Predict the 3D structure of the following.
Amino acid sequence: MYILGLNAPPLGWHDPSAALIDADGTVLALVEEERVSRRKHGLHQYPTGAIKACLDIAGIGVEEIATVAIGWDLPRQWPRRDRDALDPPLPGRLWSFDDWAAYLDACLGTSCRNRPDLVFVPHHTAHALSTFHGSGWPSAAILIVDGNGDDEAISVYHAKRGAFPVRKARLPFSHSIGTMYDTVSNWIGLSFLEAGKTMGLAAYGRGTEAAGEMFRIREDGIAPPFDLPRDSEYDAVVAEWNRHFERSGFRKSSRPVAELHTCADAVSLSWAAQSGLETLMGQLVDWARELTGETRLCLAGGVALNCSANGLLPEPVYVPPVPHDAGVALGAAWFVAPPRIAAPLSPYLGRGASEAEIHRAIRASGLSRTPFEAARLAGELAEGRIGALFTGRSEAGPRALCHRSILARPHSAEARDTVNSRKSRELWRPLSPVALAGHCNAYWQDAPNLHRYMVGAATVSETCRQVAPGVVHVDGTARPQRVEDDGEPVARILRAMEGAGAPGLLINTSFNRRGEPIVDDPLTAIDAFRAMRLDFLVFDDKWVVHDHG
């Protein structure tokens, strides 16, 4: 028996994804639709390409799926939704069996002879299951914070292995921290899908007094700086936040995004939002631990991608590699069949490429190949060259974790600017470091649960400032990744650098061009390699291509 979990339209209209598990809850694959369709965030797309990729990875057919689980409680939501505004639209009546059958066929992209069961899982429950089971912990408090779930924005659960998580509390849409941050992102000229840029911009205001009140702290919890009915919908909450910003005197930025760091209003509002978010997350974490009596905390929801806030939380804290909506595909699948073996989730759950596929792509490109030599590439990086890795199965989630990464030496701020320029990124945005697990504490205080997936920031040491200014953000922090000394290409390169007397530390950023998802197949990797004028491209631990044309 196989279970297919999905984040899918109409409610999962961004970051659609598919996760495939077996009857023991073992994760076989997790793929985001954007990686296959090459449309970033896969807006309004059914995850048909992601489903096919999962089936291909497992080597099974669609007829072998026993259950399809959706990470939204669609039947409960549809009566209060504006069905004409949804894409794709919902029927205007109670759904019949034929309606559900047509919906399932749309999700799968085909009609099954042996129709699987269809299960709808509450959105925050799916988030909760994805982070708790991903942690491998025996018990934990779970805190879900996002823009909106089915009819809540913040939830607290208590989870114990072998039992279903118990919801202890929830707060409504009107109290949504994620919606506040979305609205700020739009106000300064970004989109809500660019909240990571808002977080990076906020660092330019860190250390100054936060302008404007984002949430009120009350004895009975938190509340926005305005009064709205608790059952207010998303659009009403956004409109009220916009009015609040106007009343607070914030002006919308007319600067190009590349110059946002020079706009005082944009920086001030971003920092006010970030400062408020960090304060609130600290209080919500304390609240979740108090409600559950647990020290271990599992975090998920879109706000859990805010690595600056995560890095300030007292340990132990676990955030999965897919805390955003793409992760509910896995949580929905685990709702049907929780994992029997407790272990931290591997992020390498996407597609790989066979040696034959790699050879065909290299031949088609007209590039020559040479054997992989870690010492040679360490030397090229030490000389300031920039390269990329395409190795093994791709990472699930938005962070490149050295299977689809661009690498460079972080010896100067100019090195950071060069990498950002090659990727057509804004120069004010930070880049992340990667180091071997055993050496991280020389550069920052290691936090294995967060730094494994690059989901927590850390204040860097003076050593890191001196040897790697290219990965130090304006506020003295970095978003690091720790890698085990396990023989993978990046580990061998880092070891070779240390063997040559250089710091074992590199810039690690996602292997993609601006506006595109992370590369996911050899041909796309070669196209991106050439478009960004990179100096070398590693395929697995076997081959390296250079383009000297």
Remarks:
- The chain has a mean pLDDT of 92.
